[in-house]
Task: structure prediction
Amino acid sequence: MEKKLEIFSHFEECPVRKVLNRCGDKWSVLILLVLGEVDNMRFNKLHKTIGDISQKMLTVTLRTLEADGLIKRTVFPEIPPRVEYEITERGKSLLVHINNLVDWAEENMEAIMESRVKFES
Result:
């Protein structure tokens, strides 16, 4: 246990901080959840599915996820070019844990909201 606690105190070496820093934002999680439900998806369809994300933020987030090997970007040599995104095996292995978090949130959200109301009053 001490070894685990020790690694958290060294940001440069802490794998948990590194992973959360790269994919802990709401957009990365949503993109992984969406791509985890389909074989592949084009940029515009992904943008419409998520809804309230800007095109720029979607582009930046997709690049980050691609750089970490969580999604794959495929460009088809067509006119106009067609680009599709899909989740990788590494992304699927993370998705298992994200889905556990989703389940936990659904089970506990009502109690959390009640706690927030009590705390604020």
Remarks:
- Residues 8-120 form a domain with the Arc Repressor Mutant, subunit A fold (CATH 1.10.10.10).
